[in-house]
């Protein structure tokens, strides 16, 4: 029995050595680190209303986050870190944390270079024409470095969908937008509760900047630790971004430089109807021959496999 008591006492000491007990005021911060990819959920536990987190894991997660957002990497939950964690930000994870702090990350790609989108629900606060223009610009800003062309459609199936919906805020910050996949379509949702502004002097959230960031996710870019880049995750309303940073350009170029699929507007329609056009032409030739006898050879239609052989 004495040995068992000693064993239990030793186990408690070992547990205390790695468990950090957080106050109720600070218990939300490990959840932030878990949500955005810095801390494993298994490092966190709750007992009797208190939040416990493995000390080494928590300090390493804090250092990684501090490095990523470029504040002193103390490994401590200091005021500067708390301030950064309460700022408005994109809700996607900061992928590849700790590996390439000052560089873009990639999360996938489309297997083609011509994409389509539609706007299925418009803003209740901004005119339809203004939304159309801003969303078009948000896609266009990525076109030059990637070689991607994007066409807006009014209906039917598209690769991407943009919609304005009410998104509930976090306890300490607003959510401006998010990007998800639904039924083989990438859906970009922008928060219709936000008072969007295109006046860069107001300090209000900017729709172009937010939409362009979400389009970057839709095209395959994750977050970057480069402040001032379109794909930097933490919104700083003091920094107004009018175009892509070199880090954004390098990221999107790396993704689509190796995509060799021929792509151009209307390709699906052309490929679908090419065989029908050749069949109709050959049937027409046969009817002419049957009605008027042999005619000078006018050859076959022989439409090219691709309307634009090198893409568009």
From TrEMBL:
Keywords: Calcium, Hydrolase, Metal-binding, Metalloprotease, Protease, Signal, Zinc. SMART domains: ZnMc (SM00235). This is Peptidase metallopeptidase domain-containing protein. Its cofactor is Zn(2+); Ca(2+). Residues 106-258 form the Peptidase metallopeptidase domain. Ca(2+) 1 binds at residue 192. Ca(2+) 2 binds at residue 159. The lineage of its organism: Eukaryota, Metazoa, Ecdysozoa, Arthropoda, Hexapoda. SUPFAM superfamilies: Metalloproteases ('zincins'), catalytic domain, PGBD-like. Residues 1-19 form the signal peptide. The active site is at residue 214. GO terms for molecular function: metalloendopeptidase activity; zinc ion binding. GO terms for biological process: collagen catabolic process; extracellular matrix organization; proteolysis.
């Amino acid at each position: 029995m004495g040995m068992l008591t000693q064993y239990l006492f030793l186990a408690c000491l070992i547990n205390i050595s790695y468990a950090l007990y957080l106050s109720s005021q600070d218990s939300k911060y490990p959840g932030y680190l878990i949500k955005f990819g810095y801390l494993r959920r298994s490092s966190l536990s709750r007992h009797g209303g208190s939040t416990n987190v493995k000390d080494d894991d928590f300090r390493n997660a804090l250092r990684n986050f501090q490095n990523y957002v470029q504040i002193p990497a103390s490994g401590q939950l200091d005021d500067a870190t708390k301030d950064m964690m309460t700022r408005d930000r994109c809700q996607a994870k900061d992928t590849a944390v700790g590996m390439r702090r000052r560089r873009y990350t990639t999360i996938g790609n489309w297997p083609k270079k011509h994409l389509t989108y539609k706007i299925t629900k418009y803003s209740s606060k901004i005119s339809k024409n203004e939304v159309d223009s801003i969303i078009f610009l948000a896609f266009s800003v990525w076109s030059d470095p990637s070689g991607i062309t994007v066409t807006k459609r009014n209906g039917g199936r598209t690769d991407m969908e943009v919609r304005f919906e009410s998104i509930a805020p976090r306890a300490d910050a607003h959510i401006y937008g998010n990007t998800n996949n639904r039924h083989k379509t990438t859906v970009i949702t922008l928060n219709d509760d936000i008072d969007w502004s295109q006046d860069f002097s107001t300090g209000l959230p900017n729709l172009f900047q937010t939409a362009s960031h979400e389009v970057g996710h839709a095209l395959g870019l994750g977050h970057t630790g480069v402040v001032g880049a379109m794909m930097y995750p933490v919104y700083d309303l003091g920094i107004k971004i009018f175009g892509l940073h070199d880090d954004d350009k390098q990221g999107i170029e790396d993704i689509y430089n190796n995509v060799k699929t021929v792509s151009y507007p209307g390709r699906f329609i052309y490929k679908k109807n090419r065989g029908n056009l050749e069949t109709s032409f050959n049937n027409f030739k046969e009817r002419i021959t049957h009605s008027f006898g042999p005619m000078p050879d006018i050859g076959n239609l022989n439409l090219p496999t691709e309307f634009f052989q090198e893409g568009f």
